[in-house]
Design goal:
The structure is a homodimer. Helix content of chain A is about 35%, strand content about 20%. Chain A is of the alpha/beta class. The radius of gyration of chain A is 20 Å and the shape is elongated. Strand 6 (about 140-145) of chain A pairs antiparallel with strand 6 of chain B.
C-alpha cells in the first residue's frame, strides 16, 4: 500500500502590510514545497505564497476553496489525495488555520484516516492579545464572535465579567470590525468601573495597539476601532 | 520627561532539540538587540539567546529571574528600568511567555504605567495542539494543569466531556510529564467510548505526535507519555 500524504497547517500573516519575517523559516520551506492547498480564500493564499517566494509556481498548484458553501465533495476530494500519498497545506485568510475558519473539518477527517497532521508555528491574534494583556494565562476561554443581538451580547459580557471576578478566568472574544464600536459601547456602559479590559487591535501591523485599563479609564481613553481587527479580553492579573 | 522603554514578549522554543527556524526572524532581531531580560529560568534564556546568535554578549546582559519565589522587589526593579527608558525582554522556559509562567505580572504592571507591550509570534504548544486536533476552534477553554487529587481530576474531566458534548466547546489541559499516565488512565477509564480525545506530545520536536481518536480507540492505541510534554484535548468536530 502506498504511503499516505501529510497535512500541513500553514499560518498566514494577520494583514496585508505585515512583513514576512513574522513567519518562521521552516513554514516558508514547507509551504513552498507543496502544490495542493485547501484554502479559506484563494486570493490571500496566493498572495502569501508569492510573498514567501516570488518565483513560486502558482499556476502549477491546485487550490480548493473551503468555506461554509463548500461541502462534502471538496472535503472528500482532498481526503482522497491525502490517502493516495499527496501532501496538502491548509491556509486560512489570516493567522493559524482552524481557529475561526473551515480548516478544522479537513483536519478531523484526516485523523479518522490516520493521516499525519502537522500544525505549524505562526501568528495568532488571540494568543498575542492574551500574552500581551497581562491577564492570567493559566485559565482562559476563547468565545470567538459575540452574539449580534445587543441583549444577548450584554448578557455574555456580564457573564464574562462575573466569571473573571470569581474564578480568575480570562475571557477572550472578538467581532467583525464594523461592530467593534457597539461591543466597546456595551463594555463601557454595562461593566463595572474597576473591571479590567484589554483592547488589542491591528496586532503585528505597524499601527498595533494593545492596552489593559479599567473600564473607568477606558471611558476616557476609548479610540476608534471600527476599521481595526480587534481582540477584547476581560480578566485580572494572576 | 524621558521616553519609556518597551516590553517585549520573546517566545522560546518548546524543547532543547528544536531547531531555531521555528522562531520568526523578527523575534531574533529584537531579542538579540536587548540587554535586560526578565526570565523564568536563566539557563534556558541564555541558551536561547546563544542559539539566536553565537556571538551574543551574554556577559553584558542583566537577567532577572521571575518565579514564584521572586517578589515585589524584582518586579519593581524591572518596572523602574522600563519607566526610565530601558527596553526589556521576557523569556519563558518554553513557548510564549505569559501562558503558564510568572511573566504576566510584569506585563500587567507595565500597562498600569503606560509602557508599550509587544507580544511576539512564536511557538505555543496548546495552540499547535488545538489547530492540529481538528476540534472546533470557534470556542475553547484552556485549563492549564489538572488537580493532583484523582477524585478532583476525574470530576474535571467529566465536566469537560459533558460541556463539550452539550456546547461544542473544546477543552484543553495538561499536566507534568510524570503525571501524564495517570491523566490518560483516568481519561480511558472514566469517559465514554465515543468521546473524542486528542493527544499531542513533543510538539515541534522530531518525535512529535498528534492524534485524535475516540476513547474506545485510544484504549487499544495508548502509548507511553511519562516523559513527553503533552497537551490533551476533549472536543468534537465543528
Amino acid at each position: 500500500m502506498a504511503q499516505s500524504g501529510k497535512l500541513f497547517l500553514i499560518p498566514n500573516t494577520l494583514g496585508g502590510e505585515t512583513v514576512l519575517d513574522i513567519i518562521p523559516q521552516e513554514v516558508i520551506s514547507i509551504a513552498t514545497s507543496l502544490r495542493i492547498f485547501a484554502v479559506e480564500e484563494i486570493k490571500s493564499a496566493r498572495r502569501l505564497l508569492r510573498k514567501m517566494d516570488r518565483e513560486f509556481p502558482i499556476d502549477e498548484c491546485h487550490f480548493v476553496q473551503m468555506n461554509k458553501h463548500s461541502g462534502e465533495k471538496e472535503l472528500m476530494e482532498l481526503l482522497m489525495k491525502l490517502v493516495r500519498g499527496e501532501n496538502i497545506g491548509i491556509i486560512s485568510e489570516a493567522g493559524c488555520p482552524g481557529i475561526a475558519d473551515p480548516g478544522a473539518e479537513l483536519v478531523h477527517l484526516a485523523h479518522s484516516q490516520g493521516i499525519e497532521v502537522n500544525p505549524m508555528v505562526g501568528p495568532s491574534s488571540f494568543l498575542l492579545a492574551l500574552i500581551g494583556s497581562g491577564f492570567s494565562g493559566q485559565k482562559f476561554s476563547f468565545h470567538g464572535y459575540l452574539p449580534k443581538e445587543r441583549k444577548d451580547r450584554v448578557k455574555k459580557l456580564k457573564d464574562f465579567e462575573m466569571d473573571s471576578r470569581r474564578n480568575g478566568t480570562t475571557h477572550i472574544f472578538m467581532d467583525t470590525p464594523f461592530r467593534n464600536m457597539h461591543v466597546l459601547e456595551d463594555l463601557l456602559n454595562e461593566l463595572s468601573d474597576l473591571t479590567e479590559l484589554c483592547i488589542a487591535s491591528n496586532l503585528t501591523l505597524h499601527n498595533a495597539r494593545i492596552r489593559t485599563r479599567t473600564i473607568k479609564d477606558w471611558r476616557e481613553n476609548a479610540y476608534d476601532l471600527s476599521k481595526s481587527p480587534t481582540v477584547f479580553l476581560i480578566g485580572k492579573s494572576q
